[in-house]
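Researcher: Before we compare anything, I want clean individual predictions. No alignment, no superposition, just each chain on its own. First chain goes here; please echo the sequence and then give the structure tokens.
Model: Echoing the first chain and its structure:
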Amino acid sequence: MNLYNSYTQTIEPLKPIEPGKVSMYVCGPTVYNEPHVGNARPIVVFDTLKKALQLQGMEVMFVSNYTDVDDKIIKTAIEQNVSEKEITDRYIEAYNRVRRDLHADLPDIAPRVTETMDEIISFIQKLIDRGAAYQVDGDVYFRVMSDHTYGELSHQKMEDLMVGARIDENTKKENPLDFTLWKKTDQGIQWDSPWSKGRPGWHTECVVMIQDVFQKSLIDIHGGGLDLKFPHHENEMAQCRMCSSTPLANMWVHNGMINIQNEKMSKSLGNVWWAKDLIRDHGGNVIRWMMISVHYRAPLNLSAEAIETSKKELQKIQTAYKQAIVKLQLENAPEVEADPQMMQEFIDALNDDLNTPNAISVVYEVVKTINQTLRSRPMPTEKLASSTKALETMLSVLGIELDAILLSEEDKKMYRDWRKAVKEKEFAVADSYRSKLQEKGIL
């Protein structure tokens, strides 16, 4: 598997720290609202990456967190006159529902910030002890100048960042670029710490959860949306360097952003599309197919036209699959392995920086082969079986769920009677059989 590493800005081979095993962490959401379609894209991208690695025999430990303490959560809880936990539990379930509806696996571990507080406080103290952080009046800040490599992930120079930094009203900081590790507050949920009663800064949480869950300070892949590269991931890397002398991950993988009708999705523009609404109206298969039809690093433009195209493409695939499954059951075809050449072409596409558009092109070729085989006389049953198995495997990796079709003996007889009626031009009888077969989802 070759992936684009945002850190090195090159496509390079994934070389797991532990052979045969991949450690992957993806930044999860701050759970104060329903997930929008922008939240859904990393779900699809990194679930597809996980499945692609597993297809090739890799053991993947996939972790994604929930940020369940934040000013927005506290604000929402106050507005609704409920506890922060009630808000976060509600939207964690909403997020998991979207995962399931998009046919994505739940993370192997999904840590919450509120359940990692002791480790976060201990980590911040280590940074203070090493001179990489300082506390002022109960607040704790990371000393950016302590990391001479700061800016390497986002490929920005420290002097440029300093010039571009806005004038900060917080005069407690030594440097405008310094960021909060611990915030003293008397509003909302709080924890006792050596510095004050308060809560952690966002940039510290993932570093600590990675080290706590994986029990190491360097993992294979750290993923998330492109908007997280700076400052969030840059700040994560800086803290890990100063505490553990590692860049936290060997590969930093970022998915592109989402546009709505060629405009950036933004609450201020009022063009936010909620994931649950899209799934309800069009189904998880269609939304997922639309997302993987574009390379994960490219911007994804959502539109009614894109949705309609995805529906049509999936319908063609489903039709070919149904016909093949019915034919194979009528022929009592034995179980066979997926066509190895087809599968290799599919794997090669995915191994080329998770090139799902090229992988989809392979799927189309498999569908074409299935259709041609179905028309062949005599029909090569084994070829049809191996092509159909390849299609099933490919779509499973891409997260597309096909309708299961299991014919009973009665169904098989009805199908044969329908074909006979068609052949003998008994159209009224054929139409009656067709209607019954359609009701069963066979046609």
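Researcher: Okay. Second chain, same rules.
Model: Second chain and its structure:
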Amino acid sequence: MSSTVIHKSAKLTNVCYDIRGPVLEKARQMEEDGHKIIKLNIGNLAVFGLEPPDEIVQDMIRNLPQAAGYTDSKGLFAPRKAIVHYTQEKRIAGVTVDDVYLGNGASELITMSMNALLNAGDEILVPAPDYPLWTASVSLSGGTPVHYLCDEANGWIPDLDDMARKITPRTKGIVVINPNNPTGALYPVEVLQAIVELARKHGLIVFADEIYDKVLYDGNVHTSIASLADDILFVTFNGLSKNYRSCGYRAGWMIVSGDKRRARDYIEGLNMLASMRLCANTPGQLAIQTALGGYQSINDLVAPGGRLCRQRDLAHRLLTEIPGVSCVKPKAALYMFPRLDPKIYPIEDDQQFAYDLLAEEKVLIVQGTGFNYPTPDHFRLVFLPHEDDLAEAIGRIARFLGHLRRRYGTE
């Protein structure tokens, strides 16, 4: 019998996705041993009782008997037309049905957009912290992710000087995650305009991840960066997972807009890749038109007194009451990215921190370096559990941090 070891591809060397990484494996093992874990690691809304609107569910059920065949490789006409109408609401000019690609979640399309573009050594500017799928997709596509810093002292807004410094002749595009995961930041129009100007000056594509564009608090308004110009190329991503609490439906979309003439070859590459996977799942496609055209129940959840707003406020208050913990209050999305003062918590390995928190307190979070943040002094917390569970979880985090302060002698 052969003893040859079978190795994973070298393409995966720089690919990591710690949201579902080694700490989660430890959590699974603990659950198998009978422990109950409070999971604050992933924005999976359904497990916290945040269900999709009933009309979406009913529409999919009604249409399921007709959903067994392949669709056009870009997707069914009706949902793509509904997305065109949505782009008009967002003031993105010149989008036709042909510019819309449906995917198995935005995640599939993010990887597709990178695969179609990048050659070995090409660079993409990605925020730090980022949603790690972006960094992983750039690496897997043969490109080099280059991280520009977002400034915590300025509400986690991109550091435009840092972004500009990191543009080289090899840079192909800039990723903008707005509203932001993991920080909950929402970018002002003047920052978006400055990013457009950088893209214009250097001939770059703007990749806009806008999956949380309706999860907005305190009356904040989201601006699609693609609405601000038509002379550069924009690729915008969105979907039903978060705004419509339907992660498992895997119903996402990608919109190509702006200067499409100079991108004909790239668009041909996108069309090839869309055809290779045949089509996105048909039942998920069937939910899109009803979702976009129906009652927007997300507005009730994020309004003052709404469930998500209450949970955000509670989580922020309880976290910032812990000695040595500070946190920019999220304006959007489902996450916060608190900072642990390194003088009080001199943590050198934040994955070990997350591991120890899980082992001691049965609370699962993701360490900040899992989002490609350069220093081990942050973590991401999901504020999706009901208030009682959230208070219990943050109480356990506070207790664990109290133990750390005693251990470090920083009480």
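Researcher: What stands out in the second chain?
Model: The two ends are 59 Å apart (CA to CA). Additionally, Residues 387-408 form the longest helix (22 residues).
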